[in-house]
Design a protein that fits this description.
Blueprint lengths: L1 H15 L8 E7 L2 E8 L7 E6 L15 H6 L3 E7 L8 H17 L7 E6 L1 H16 L5 E7 L5 H13 L5 H17 L8 H7 L20 E5 L3 H7 L11 H13 L5 E5 L13 H14 L3
Parallel strand pairs: 3-4, 3-5, 5-6, 6-7, 7-8
Antiparallel strand pairs: 1-2, 2-4
Helix pairs in contact: 5-6
């Protein structure tokens, strides 16, 4: 009964956004000896581009089609949209990179072209993976048709995340959720990166999309020439009133985005933008205005020669 309810809810959700449930297909594959699945939507005309949207931690891939109008808008322009169901990670690790490579290869073959412009974006952890993947392919120079990347409120600096996790554990908040979140984040990073930033600094530098304390920004130095949009709604009053009055700017992901934007400006990336919104919802797919984001993607594709 519960499964039937979830299916009905999903159908109603996508219909409410102008996308029928029949438009969303499913696919699967294997990367690094691990099975993966993804949802996708493709145009009836020859494909003109590929949009990859990465869900947040624990977010169900098909549900993304009901949370943003971006796939529907770009569908009309001939774009394939793919939403992978990634394993739970806060950064672009080897498995996440292998899965994305596999999906792009499979969809390029499906549409008969390895020259389709690819745009990748994501929410929260998905946004961090999107930026980390863009850094990887720019470093390796193995996906020349990746033309743009965007991220919605992602955690980028893993050292900052670890420090924030320690702060959240120490805060005397009435809401126990913040302390629990801090403990979970600290435990995850300690396990995934084999220790704290002091114990294993090399792992934090290797996997962080941005290392603010490194003169070269760590992996962010590979973003010098790619169009990038960083979205956030830095509503500190909201998180303080909702979760804990002791929370600081260093405890929300917008802190990373503001610093990365300044770093990219210093590298003379004039195609980097930090877009801070108000009243669109904290930490949600709704932060980017879908038509504006679609127009940005279409403009980049129009001026890019592949």
């Amino acid at each position: 009964m519960m499964r039937a309810y979830r299916i009905v809810f999903f159908i109603l959700l996508v219909l409410s956004k102008g996308i029928s449930a029949q438009d969303v297909k499913t696919g699967s594959g294997k990367a690094n000896n691990k099975n993966y699945s993804y949802s996708f939507m493709e145009p009836t005309i020859p494909a003109k581009g590929m949009l990859i949207l990465l869900p947040g931690w624990g977010e169900n891939a098909p549900s993304v089609f009901g949370k943003t109008k971006l796939p529907g808008i770009l569908l009309e322009k001939g774009f394939v949209t793919i939403v992978p169901q990634l394993h739970q990670t806060l950064f672009a690790d080897e498995l996440a990179i292998a899965i994305l490579n596999s999906i792009i290869e499979a969809q390029s073959g499906r549409h008969g072209s390895d020259h389709l412009p690819v745009i990748i974006g994501g929410l929260s952890a998905g946004g961090a993976i999107a930026i980390g993947y863009a850094e990887h392919v720019k470093r390796e120079n193995n996906l020349k048709n990746l033309v743009a990347v965007f991220a919605i409120d992602p955690p980028l600096d893993l050292v900052r995340m670890y420090r924030s996790a320690e702060n959240k554990i120490a805060y005397s908040c009435k809401n126990k959720l913040i302390r629990k979140e801090g403990a979970n984040t600290k435990n995850y990073l300690t396990k995934a990166l084999d220790g704290s930033p002091e114990e294993n600094p090399a792992s934090y530098r290797k996997y962080a999309a941005f290392s603010a304390n490194e003169p070269d920004g760590g992996n962010a130095k590979y973003l010098q020439h790619i169009p990038i949009r960083l979205y956030a709604e830095p509503d500190l009053d909201f998180v303080r009133n909702t979760y804990c009055q002791q929370l600081q700017m260093e405890d929300i992901n917008a802190f990373d985005l503001e610093k990365l934007n300044k770093f990219l400006a210093g590298m003379h990336n004039n195609k980097a933008e930090y877009i801070a919104t108000k009243g669109r919802g904290f930490h949600s797919w709704n932060i980017p205005e879908a038509k504006d984001c679609a127009d940005w993607i279409l403009a980049i594709c129009a001026e890019t020669k592949l």
